[in-house]
Amino acid sequence: MATSTSSHLNKGTKKMYMSLPQGEKVQAMYVCIDGTGEGLHCKTRTPDCEPKCVEEIPECNLDGCSTLQTEGSNNPNNLVFCEVFKSNRKPAETNLWIMDMVRNQHPWFGMEQEYTLMGTDRHPFGWSSNGFPGSQGPYYCGVGADKAYGRHIVQAHYQAGVKITRTNAEVMHAHMGDHLWVARFILHHVCEDFEVIATFDSKPIPGNWNGAVCHTNFSTEAMPENGLKYIEEAVEELSKRHQYHIRAYDPKRGLDNARRQTGFHETSNINDFSAGVANRGASIQKGYFEDRRPSVNCLLSETGDEPLQYKN
Questions:
Q1: 19 belongs to a structural domain
Q2: Which pLDDT tens digit goes with each residue over 205-244?
Q3: Quick count: other Cβ atoms within 10 Å of Cβ 251?
Q4: Of 21, 87, 224, 232, whose CA is between 20 and 30 Å from 153?
Q5: Co-location of 103 and 90 in the same domain
Q6: What angle do the packed helices 151-158 and 181-194 form, to 10 degrees?
Q7: Which top class of enzyme applies to this chain (predicted)?
Q8: Which segments within 28-143 are labelled E, that is strand?
Q9: Which residues make beta-bridge pairs with 269?
Q10: Is 296 in contact with 261 (CB distance < 8 Å)?
C-alpha cells in the first residue's frame, strides 16, 4: 500500500526537542498485552516523583491495564510492564503469570525470539522489489552488506537495556534473533525510528524459506547438578502432552505454527513428537534442553504453562 510522502518524519527535528532539559519531571511508559495475547499497547504518564520501587508506580487505566510490575529504566524515566486486570479487579484472560506454581523447582528459561524485518510495503527488508535473494545458506550469522541487512536495528535494540544474552542473523534473509515481551515492545519502537516493520509471523514468506520461531531453552535447579537423567524425565513428560502444547504455543491454537512446522526447513512435523541430541530437526533438543516447537509469536506466559488438570 502506497503512503503519503508527508508520512515520513524528520528524525532530526525530534532530536532537537528530546535534547531539551527535562528538569525534575519523570515519565513512565506503561506497556500491556492486549486481548489478542500477542499485541502490545502503551501509554505515558508523568508521576509526581521518580518511583524508587514497583509499589510507588501509580496504577494506570489503559484498556483495563493495572501496573504491578516494572521492567527496565532510562534514567530517570521508567518503562513499566503491566499485568492486566478487568474492571472488577479479576485477572484478564491474557494475565497468565504462573511461576509461583513451580517456584520450588527454580526454573530457568531462555527465549530465542526471532523476527523478520519488513519494509513499510510489507516486503522483506533488503530483498529486491522484483525478485528473491540467493538461496539460504550464507545468511545465518552472516557478515557483509550482501548478507546482513538491518544490523543497525539489531544493535540499537541490543543497547536498550533489556536482558538479552545474544543476537544473531538467522537462516532466512531478514531474520534476527532476540528475547521476550519488553524486548518485543522496544523492538517495535526502534523499528519506528528506522521506518521498518518487525513481524512475528511464523511463516512470512511461503515456499522454500525458513519460518520464524521462538526456541525455548529450559532448565531447573536439578538438571545441571544431576545431568541427563532429569532432562530425559522432563522430555518424557512433554511427550505425553504434545498436542496440548502445540495448541498453546501460538495465539491461533496451532494454526500459525502449522504453516512453519512441516518437517522441512529445520523443523519437526507438527503432528509428531521427537527428541534428540544436537539435532536441529527434533522437537526437543537436549543439553539444558531446547523446545523447538513454540511459534515466533508464542504466548510467552503460556509457553511454560502446565495447567493443573495435566499434572500427575
A1: no
A2: 887 778 888 888 888 888 876 678 888 888 899 899 988 8
A3: 19
A4: 21
A5: no
A6: 130
A7: ligase
A8: 28-33, 40-45, 65-66, 73-74, 77-81, 83-84, 108-118
A9: 262
A10: no
